[in-house]
Amino acid sequence: MASRVNRETVDLSSYPDLVVIYLGMRVNRLYGLRTLMTRGPRIDRSGEQPDGLLAHETFLWSLFPMHLGIRQYWRDLPTLLAWARSEPHRVWWRDFLRDSGGTGFWHETYLLRGGMEAVYDDIPQRRGFASFAPVQPARGAMFGAAARAGRPEDDLAPVVTEDDLHAPGT
């Protein structure tokens, strides 16, 4: 039987530390549309080839509620984390953690060498890993992405510390 399908694959051997990250921004309240429309394009432009970013793709998760997505491919976890702590991303993330502006934000990260991690901020519906795995607060050892992925040696100082984000005793 002859196939009419042009079936291809990829050779990832040149990318042994490849990291894939999915990100989503969801409108939770009507005024969140404004937040999405002001922050969304800036976040999308952030994919204009920082060091270590191999590819950046945007897509639509849903119209109702409005939920936009990004998929990025990074050379390795240290370059992703360094970019996340640089300007302008550092400021966006700090501002979001202070006030989500009627939106929710989440990401899931997959590392070719092993390890996966996720965080969900103001996401009312369980999605991704949270749709089947036990959910717990992103506190203590689960606060930073590198530690959640089982790669604490790659951790950098966080954009916002846990003490800054949470008042003592909360």
TrEMBL record:
InterPro entries: Monooxy_af470. It comes from the Bacteria. This is DUF4188 domain-containing protein.
